[in-house]
Design goal:
Elements: H1 2-10, H2 15-32, H3 38-45, H4 51-68, H5 72-95, H6 99-104, H7 115-145, H8 149-182, H9 198-220, H10 228-251, H11 253-259, H12 263-292, H13 297-326, H14 336-361, H15 365-383, H16 385-397, H17 402-421, H18 424-427, H19 429-436, H20 438-443, H21 445-451
Helix pairs in contact: 1-2, 4-5, 4-14, 5-7, 5-8, 5-14, 8-12, 8-13, 8-14, 8-15, 9-10, 9-12, 10-12, 11-16, 12-15, 12-16, 13-14
């Protein structure tokens, strides 16, 4: 309250400082509003207290993936293992709302003289709850499949089918996380009318996509200095990437014209268009490489692992930030890691099962299967591109009311402060009018322009 009092009293010294004073409540809003951004998520995931769970994901995923490449019975047990761990970590994420579970799954109080032993012991303690829950679920699934051969077929097949859902989920989570990030800020919510500039927005979008496509093609064809057929492959990809963008822009041109009719809408449309379509181009390039070339298994594993990490990060960021800002308890900054691990085991399991299924159908099919997944993700982002623009147009027309409400809440304490200070300037009629008109000053176009 002291900071508010000083800002308010100094606001009566000059008209210039009145504008500064009117900005203070907004600055306080930014501090008080519960945010959960990508930086907070990364800090949570890399926290030493929960790092053992990341290591467990890597260790068990490698073991279960290798098991899945064995005979049918081993494939079944691998699928059950992935499913059990995924649900086990989901239950762990939910249970961390209780203090006992919250402390149990974290590494605390490492001894400085025997750091490794202390870390190992605390890691076993941290793993105990999710592994116990996973074991219970695993035992239940094993009892379910006893004497029923249909389950032995359907469990791995069902987990493999999740691969397509994960591909769609990649597109949806990318949209949710990225659009939420790009929607923050006053400039993208500026409802000032302007002439629609579809040509300018489209030109930047196509230029960004063409640049990325050329760089990818250049990298995979030895700088366009290889054999003619190799160069033509990637020149064909560049043409395909640009054609996809031109077709999409033509398809959504009416939405682009509508959204870019305001300054905030044009700014958002340009940024979302470039970032989302660069991501689309990356997926198209991955599919192209798998269908046209014969990528090495190592390169494919690295790329799919990178995509898994990005997908899990965006999915958890989207779900957690939305729930945190609403004050929810299901997805929070404290249990975001455990939801991420649950999704990670599910994703890794689907990859393991689809790999085994592809190998059983014939060699080389895994590359084609992965290519289909990339195409599904790219198509998902393209299909929701227009809807994302329209959603932001609605956000501009109906901006969040949090700022106005918090200014009103702060206004009452400020009035009480004027009575305590008992300064002559505070009792003047002009000063009281300033307090009453604080919201009007806050929301006026002149002040908003000055703040920008």
């Amino acid at each position: 309250m002291a900071g508010i009092d000083e800002g308010y009293v100094s606001g009566h010294e000059s008209s210039e400082s009145e504008h500064t004073s009117s900005d203070d409540p907004l600055e306080i809003d930014n501090i008080e509003e519960p945010k959960f951004g990508l930086r907070e998520l990364l800090a949570t995931l890399m926290d030493l207290k929960t790092l053992p769970h990341i290591l467990l994901l890597l260790i068990l995923s490698i073991i279960l993936y290798a098991l899945a490449q064995g005979p049918d019975s081993a494939n079944l047990y691998s699928a059950i293992g992935f499913i059990s761990l995924s649900f086990g970590y989901s239950l762990t994420a939910i249970s961390t709302r209780w203090d006992f579970a919250h402390r149990l799954v974290r590494v605390e109080g490492l001894a400085s003289d025997s750091w490794f032993k202390s870390m190992l012991f605390n890691s076993l303690k941290a793993w105990s709850l999710p592994l116990l829950l996973s074991t219970i679920i695993c035992f239940g699934l094993l009892q379910l499949i006893k004497g029923d051969d249909n389950w032995k077929t359907w469990i791995p097949l069902s987990l493999a089918s999740l691969f397509l859902l994960w591909s769609i989920g990649q597109g949806l989570s990318f949209k949710s996380g990225t659009a939420s990030w790009l929607s923050n800020g006053k400039k993208v919510l500026d409802d000032t009318s302007r002439e629609s500039n579809v040509i300018g927005i489209s030109a930047w979008q196509i230029l960004a996509v063409a640049t990325v496509a050329v760089l990818i093609g250049y990298a995979y064809s030895s700088g366009f200095q290889g054999e003619t057929n190799e160069k033509l492959k990637w020149i064909g990809f560049i043409i395909l990437a640009i054609t996809v963008q031109v077709a999409m822009i033509y398809w959504i041109k009416d939405t682009l014209i509508d959204v870019s009719a305001t300054k905030g809408g044009a700014r958002f449309a340009a940024r979302w268009g470039m970032i989302s379509q660069i991501f689309v181009t990356w997926h198209l390039a991955s599919a192209w490489r798998r269908l046209i070339d014969e990528p090495s298994a190592f390169t494919m594993v690295i790329e799919e692992f990178t995509l898994m990490v990005i997908t899990v990060l965006l999915a958890i960021w989207s779900l957690a930030s939305r729930d945190v800002n609403r004050g929810g308890k299901l997805f929070t900054s404290e249990n975001a890691l455990f939801w991420g691990l649950a999704f990670g085991f599910g994703y890794a399991g689907s990859i393991a099962m689809i790999t085994n299924l592809s190998d059983s159908l014939g060699g080389g099919n895994i590359a084609t299967t992965m290519a289909i997944g990339h195409l599904v993700t790219a198509l998902t982002i393209i299909m929701i591109h227009s809807k994302t623009l329209r959603s932001h147009k609605i956000r501009i027309l109906n901006p969040p009311q949090v700022m106005t409400q918090k200014v009103d809440n702060i206004e009452t304490p400020i009035t009480e402060v004027t009575e305590v200070e008992e300064e002559p300037e505070v009792d003047e009629p002009e000063t009281q009018e300033q307090v009453i008109d604080l919201d009007d000053l806050e929301l006026s176009d002149d002040v908003v322009e000055l703040m920008d």
